[in-house]
Amino acid sequence: MKKTIFTLIFLIAIAGGVFYFVRPAFEKKPHSLVLYGNADDRQVNLSFSIQERIAELLPEEGDLVKKGDLVGKLETVRLNNDAAAAAAQIPVRQAVLKAATALYEKAKNGSRKEDIAISKYISEAITAKIKAAESDFHRKQTLVDSDAVSKQSGETAEAEYFFLKAALEGSKTMVERLTSGERPEDIAAAAARVREAEASVALAKAELAIREQKVKDTELFAPCDGIVRSRLREPGEMATPQTPVLTITLISPKWIRCYINESNLVKIKPGDKAEVKFDGAEEPFEGQVGFISPNAEFTPKNIETADLRTNLVYEVRVIVKDPDNRLRSGAPATVTFPEIMGTE
Q1: Taking Cα atoms as reference points, which of 29, 76, 35, 87 lies closest to residue 53?
Q2: pLDDT tens track for 141-165
Q3: Where is 311: in which H helix or E strand?
Q4: Residue range 308-324: average pLDDT?
Q5: Alpha carbon distance 290, 287 (integer Å)
Q6: What contacts 24+ positions apart, CB below 8 Å, involve 137-146?
Q7: Taking the CA of residue 1 as centre, how many other CA atoms within 13 Å lie in the half-sphere pointing to its CB?
Q8: More confident residue, 108 or 226
Q9: CA distance linking residue 176 with residue 243, whole number of Å
């Protein structure tokens, strides 16, 4: 009996010791927040700004391109002809403007002083001559009545007098017109013709600028550093602004698409630093949170977390710099936040 009791006490002691030493292994210890995801490519679809037939696409699929590199050209024959025709219209319309401006200045400034002076001289000369013509007319009228001169001689004197009288009225009217200048409505009409000609010149210049810009738009340049992933069109095909011709994959930065459960969601925010590890990579990549989805969703089947598949999670994008282009689309990644404690 004593042996049995001793044996029981011994077994209890052993069990207590084992529990004491093993218990920490079963206790949940705090650990850094870890997310799992995959590398995603960021792509740019390039298209021309205008519609025209493709003349040349320079890079092949897989080629590395730098920002500003020429990657494609469109045919330019028709566009160059349109630009030349628009350029030819400018001097023609400028000549019309010059003529309209001259007429407006003439109407606004009125007659020259020399023209007015000449008209006055003519009026004064007629005035001086008409007095003698009037005296001759009356004298011959008296002589005709007394049959001293012929009737024809009297009629000639009468015609000369009335002709000079009409000429005097005409010269006075001309002097008055030259002195007073053009009518306001005539000046306004001349000004309107100048504005119309100016608008015509501006329109021609704008049309030329549009044509020249279209010629420039026949060249397509890479907007960033990257690798040509796809050639979607070939030379000879018609390009439009709505139709991409090349797809470029950005080299850096890239992002890791991963998912976080609701209990850990409040622990991270955009800008938080993270370590990103990939299978086969000795050194971790530096990353930071760039985007957290505001909407919950069910865990995608290709993402494995410690939670059940039916748990709601939120998409997180962690931006990673990869200047050497070592990461490939779809590569599995482990994202660790060393300074943030996560929960299961």
Answers
A1: 76
A2: 666 566 665 666 656 766 666 676 6
A3: none
A4: 76
A5: 9
A6: 137/161
A7: 0
A8: 226
A9: 72
What are the domain boundaries of the chain? Answer: 28-41+253-342, 44-75+218-249, 81-213
Strand (E) positions, 22-126? 31-40, 43-46, 52-57, 64-65, 70-74
Tokens of 189: 């009409």
CATH topology of domain 28-41+253-342: Elongation Factor Tu (Ef-tu); domain 3 (2.40.30)
Tell me how far CA of residue 221 lies from CA of 43, 69, 147, 245, in angstroms.
15, 5, 108, 12
- Tokens for 257, please give them: 């698409």
Which CATH number, 2.40.50.100, 3.90.1280.10, 1.10.1660.10, 1.10.443.10, labels domain 44-75+218-249? 2.40.50.100
Tokens in use for 115? 């023209």
Measured over the CA atoms of residue 297, residue 302, residue 303 and residue 304, the dihedral's sign is: positive
- Whether the domain at 28-41+253-342 and the domain at 44-75+218-249 fall into the same CATH topology: no
Whether residue 233 contacts residue 220, with contact meaning beta carbons closer than 8 Å, is answered with no
Mean pLDDT of 266-280: 85
The pLDDT of residue 241 is: 93
